[in-house]
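lol ok so funny story. i was supposed to be doing the assay writeup but got distracted and ended up predicting the structure for this chain instead. priorities right. anyway since i did it might as well share w the group, maybe its usefull for someone
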Amino acid sequence: MKPDIHPNYRTVIFHDTSVDRYFFINTTLQTSQTMAWKDGKTYPYQAIDVSSASHPFYTGQQRSTQLEGRVQNFKRRFGSRNLKGVK
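and the output, tada:
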């Protein structure tokens, strides 16, 4: 590999501000903020709005809201019809 052309690969603390969770991820992200962690070391710090801890798809909340919408849509379309005798 050629020297001095690759970005600095380091451990960064990501803070999901919506649920107040912290993640350590190795990345090439460049940030000017730092944060002292419980182990006494100082790490680069990046605040984020959404992560797997707060995103509805990963927490399962999105699926339940979609199912509620589908049930309501079904009742709206077919709920008033008499379906007896239909095979």
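The chain has one domain: 10-78. The chain has a mean pLDDT of 80.
back to the writeup now i swear
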